[in-house]
Amino acid sequence: MTKRIALITGATSGLGRAIALRLAKDGYNLIITGRRKDRLEELDKEIGIKYNSTVISLCLDVRNYEEVEKAINSLSEDWKKIDILVNNAGLAVGLDPIHQGVVDDWERMIDTNVKGLLYVTRVVSPGMVDRKSGHIINIGSIAGKGVYPNGGVYCATKHAVDALSQGMRMDFLPYNIKVTQICPGAVETEFSLVRFKGNQGRADQVYAGYENLVADDIAEAVYYAVSQPAHVDIQDMLIMPTAQATGNMFHKEE
Ligand code: NDP
Ligand code: 8X3
User: Fold this and answer.
1) Looking at ligand 2, which atom is closest to the CA of residue 158?
2) How do residues 59-93 score in pLDDT, each as one tens digit?
3) Using CA positions, which residue lies closest to atom 23 of ligand 1?
4) Bridge partner list, 32
5) Is 154 assigned a catalytic role?
């Protein structure tokens, strides 16, 4: 039997990297993407050492439709038969009230989390429709289920992921394509370092005083979703640290 193929966006760090390793362990061949070429090369090497899985790296920025289309269309016909698309690439930039918001931060979040997800899906999904087979996993967030102060724009992008996941489920219904949204609470990755523009002290504070999730927790959830029988679609998963109730309500030990 030929191996199944999974394309993971944002595989150079955090959740995407952990998901790539988890799916490689399960025998998938992988297309890993991200902007940092050195990180893609490292991951490709690590997977080659640990698992019997073939990897193709596509260095791309999901905000650039032409780049996304060209990279995916450059794949051989066999590699274009993507079984699983994990729309993971995303980020928060800044934590400011709207009246003090940095417009460039807003553009980066909206362009990456909403338009980037759409661009990749637009290029990959027609093949799934033709084959009447496929599984799209969108990484949403607790920020797509509620809103917290100063995070309005990031939360809006993740609410958009929630809406797009529902819309995709409707549009792809006749084509036997599963759509799963996985919504994590706080996971310690490079997420907060990116949000606070390299301020390690502020990033560390996000994860201090309680037990946060780790990327492997979410990778296991992805594995669970893709391992279900053909008739089962896990539509939505909200996965939180035990010590986190909402986007901004934590029980922290002082
Ligand atoms: P990381 O910062 O560790 O990883 C983000 C990944 O996204 C990197 O691989 C990065 O790759 C990629 N990425 C960012 N911008 C682009 C772009 N323009 N083009 C291509 N790739 C891009 O954060 P996480 O792993 O935590 O984040 C992954 C997803 O999980 C995001 O969608 C985030 O919103 C979501 N999430 C995270 C939570 C958390 O607490 N950590 C909780 C809930 C959801 P590169 O820089 O190489 O391009
Ligand atoms: C990332 C988690 O709590 O910053 O989506 O919204 S949070």
Assistant:
1) 5
2) 999 999 999 999 999 999 999 999 999 999 999 99
3) 191
4) 8, 57
5) yes
173 burial via Cβ count (<10 Å: 0-12, 13-18, 19+):
exposed
Question: Could you tell me the distance, in angstroms and rounded to a whole number, from the CA of residue 140 to the centre of ligand 1?
Answer: 11
Show the domains of the chain with their CATH numbers: 5-250 (3.40.50.720)
Is 142's C-beta closer than 6 angstroms to any atom of ligand 2? Answer: yes
- Mean of all residue pLDDT scores within the chain: 98
pLDDT tens readout for residues 110-169:
999 999 999 999 999 999 999 999 999 999 999 999 999 999 999 999 999 999 999 999
Report CA(154)–ligand 2 centroid distance (Å): 8
Which atom of ligand 2 lies closest to the CA of 141? 5
CA–CA gap between residue 119 and residue 111 (Å, rounded) = 10
Q: Is the pLDDT of residue 29 over 50?
A: yes
Contacts of 129 (CB under 8 A, 6+ apart): 172, 175, 177
pLDDT surpassing 80 at residue 18: yes
